[in-house]
Amino acid sequence: MENLHLHLVAAVPNALFLERLLMFEDITAQVFDGAPLPIDGYMHVPDLPGLGLKLNMDFIGERDETSPASRR
Q1: Which residues have C-beta within 8 Å of that of residue 38, sequence separation ≥ 6?
Q2: pLDDT digits over 7-47, tens only?
Q3: Per-residue pLDDT, 4
């Protein structure tokens, strides 16, 4: 979730910190390719379109409950 809040915090001139929930770190790393991580205590806003996140479609496809492969 901090990936969404990262843009909000970056847009507020007096924002002091961004809270990160480590309990979601593993799933975030699997769902998104190249999700931003802190470097030396700082988060950098991605420069990709939109939120700057790219979905890992392989991971999502493996867990798609509507696909025929998941009905086996």
Answers
A1: 20
A2: 999 999 999 899 888 888 888 889 999 888 889 988 889 88
A3: 84
> What would the two tokens of residue 59 be?
């991971």
29-40 confidence digits (pLDDT tens): 899 998 888 899
C-alpha angle 33/37/43, rounded to 5°? 130
Q: Which two tokens stand for residue 33?
A: 């390719």
Instruction: Indicate the pTM of the whole model.
Output: 0.69
Nearest CA-CA partner of 45 in 54, 36, 56? 36
**Element (DSSP H or E) covering residue 26:** helix 25-31
The amino acid at residue 10 is A
Cβ-based neighbours of 54, under 8 Å, separated by 6 or more: 32, 33, 34, 48
CA atoms of 71 and 56, how far apart (whole Å): 21
